[in-house]
């Protein structure tokens, strides 16, 4: 039976979906369409595929997201390999690392490479196209999947399909073209041979390694050195940071795929398979509005929202009541620490707001108020001069690091569950409606010994309350940050 390894690339930041998507909690980790996050939906995309032996998916991600991704995979019961990039170097190095990981046990599976932040509505049709591509990939072809366009879209690159191949619905790649202007996009739509570039690929691991060696050998050299000097860290595959930082930055398209259209003899055949599966890259708020169910007036709402005489408007509320009156074609996104109001025709420009926030050093570009950690999460609910209040939830069996603060003391009040508190040499339990005090300079640890989540309120007081005021003595997760 044919062997297939799903490779999920999870390195994007999704800045045009700010304020829900942040640099350290990007859109693939969000539940935008249904209860699954975009990452979870991608990992599930091949569930039920028959006639193919599906191996454990391989997730390639930034170190920053590793614990959140591991937890999201645990929630849906997926046993995946998580490969950590020390820094972003675009998709070609990410796929090269994935291919090296795939052949590490003398195997040579077919890799199905998928971005983690796309939406596909018709999984059955997608799986049918994957089956169609498997035979060609086994024979040595490099396959990309092109989306059958339904509009003159200027936000996507295009692939022109060339000569039809023996397998029905498969074509040689004629050429790749950059994002067009509106008139050119309309001409592509009228022509009928042009497809949107989906960023989904399929090939054998060895075929990709051979192709990248021919087209961009410095990428392979750097990735191989990083892989060979890497290590296994619990649930994570790590590569050597120093070696990987020497790797050039390039995409799969630029590094290899565009060269396949030249039909060079030393390169594998480039094949495109058209997809009509209800695809979206959910690249901006107008794209999300397009794929979500709408009321009779074309509105999409989520959360505590009231509308009066509104049309074609997207409103998402995370934290409080949002009311809109007499507005059309808006995107209104509310989070605990930021609100976005934009015309749907201008949602691509949200990136400019993010750039301004970044230049100003604003934390809202990086983090939500609610911060996820491997032991659970905390929400900074209030702050003032010399104090800060957090709501903290610790997962069953989890523990914060053994640590100490130079500049702050902490008061802990348990509101649900039971806490095990270590304070210097003593340990004791704190139950619901009880509290304890951690003076500054005291070594301490918080643990949840129970089977239910531990919820507590932490009041910090002191001259400095930054997250970097932590001296860590011991941490089961091997972190350098809280």
UniProtKB/TrEMBL annotation:
Its EC number is 2.7.7.13. It holds the Pfam family ManC_GMP_beta-helix. Residues 309-357 form the MannoseP isomerase/GMP-like beta-helix domain. InterPro entries: GMPP_N, Man1P_GuaTrfase/Man6P_Isoase, Man6P_isomerase-2_C, ManC/GMP-like_b-helix, Mannose-6P_isomerase_type2, NTP_transferase_dom, Nucleotide-diphossugar_trans, RmlC-like_jellyroll. One of its GO terms (biological process) is GDP-mannose biosynthetic process. GO terms for molecular function: GTP binding; isomerase activity; mannose-1-phosphate guanylyltransferase (GTP) activity. Signal peptide: none annotated. Residues 6-295 form the Nucleotidyl transferase domain. Keywords: GTP-binding, Isomerase, Nucleotide-binding, Nucleotidyltransferase, Transferase. Residues 361-475 form the Mannose-6-phosphate isomerase type II C-terminal domain. It is an enzyme of class 2 (transferase). It catalyses: alpha-D-mannose 1-phosphate + GTP + H(+) = GDP-alpha-D-mannose + diphosphate. The keyword GTP-binding applies. The keyword Nucleotide-binding applies. Belongs to the mannose-6-phosphate isomerase type 2 family. This is mannose-1-phosphate guanylyltransferase.
């Amino acid at each position: 039976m044919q062997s297939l390894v799903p490779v999920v690339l999870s390195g994007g930041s999704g800045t045009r979906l700010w304020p829900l998507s942040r640099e350290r909690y990007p859109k693939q980790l969000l539940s935008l369409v249904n209860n699954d996050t975009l990452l979870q939906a991608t990992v599930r995309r091949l569930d039920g595929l028959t006639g193919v032996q599906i191996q454990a998916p391989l997730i390639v991600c930034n170190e920053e997201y590793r614990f959140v991704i591991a937890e999201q995979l645990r929630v849906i019961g997926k046993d995946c390999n998580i490969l950590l990039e020390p820094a972003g170097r675009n998709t070609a190095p990410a796929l090269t690392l994935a291919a090296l990981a795939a052949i590490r046990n003398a195997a040579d599976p077919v890799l199905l490479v998928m971005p983690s932040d796309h939406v596909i509505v018709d999984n059955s049709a997608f799986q049918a196209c994957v089956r169609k591509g498997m035979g060609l990939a086994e024979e040595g072809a490099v396959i990309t999947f092109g989306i059958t366009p339904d509009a003159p879209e200027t936000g996507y690159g295009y692939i022109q399909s060339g000569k039809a191949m023996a397998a029905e619905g498969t074509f040689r790649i004629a050429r790749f073209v950059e994002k067009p202007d509106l008139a050119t996009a309309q001409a592509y739509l009228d022509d009928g041979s042009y497809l949107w570039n989906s960023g989904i690929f399929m090939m054998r691991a060895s075929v990709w390694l051979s192709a990248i060696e021919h087209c961009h050998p410095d990428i392979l050299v750097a990735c191989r050195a990083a892989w060979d000097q890497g290590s296994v860290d619990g649930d994570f595959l790590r590569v050597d940071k120093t070696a990987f930082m020497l790797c050039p930055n390039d995409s799969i398209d630029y590094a290899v795929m565009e060269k396949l259209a030249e039909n060079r003899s030393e390169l594998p055949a480039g094949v495109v398979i058209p997809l009509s599966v209800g695809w979206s890259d959910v690249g901006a708020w107008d794209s999300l509005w397009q794929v979500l169910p709408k009321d009779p007036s074309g509105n999409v709402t989520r959360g505590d929202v009231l509308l009066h005489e509104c049309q074609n408007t997207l409103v998402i509320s995370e934290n409080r009541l949002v009311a809109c009156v007499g507005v059309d074609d808006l995107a209104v996104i509310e989070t605990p620490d930021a609100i976005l109001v934009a015309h749907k025709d201008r949602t691509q420009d949200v990136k400019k707001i993010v750039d301004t926030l970044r230049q100003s050093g604003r934390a809202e570009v990086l983090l939500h108020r609610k911060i996820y950690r491997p032991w659970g999460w905390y929400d900074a609910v209030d702050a003032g001069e010399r104090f800060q209040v957090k709501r903290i939830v610790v997962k069953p069996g989890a523990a914060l690091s053994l640590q100490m603060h130079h500049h702050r003391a902490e008061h802990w009040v348990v509101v649900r569950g039971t806490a095990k508190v270590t304070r210097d040499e003593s340990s004791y339990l704190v139950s619901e409606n009880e509290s304890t005090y951690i003076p500054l300079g005291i070594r301490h640890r918080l643990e949840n010994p129970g089977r239910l989540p531990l919820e507590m309120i932490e009041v910090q007081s002191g001259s400095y309350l930054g997250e970097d005021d932590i001296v860590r003595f011991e941490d089961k997760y091997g972190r350098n940050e809280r």
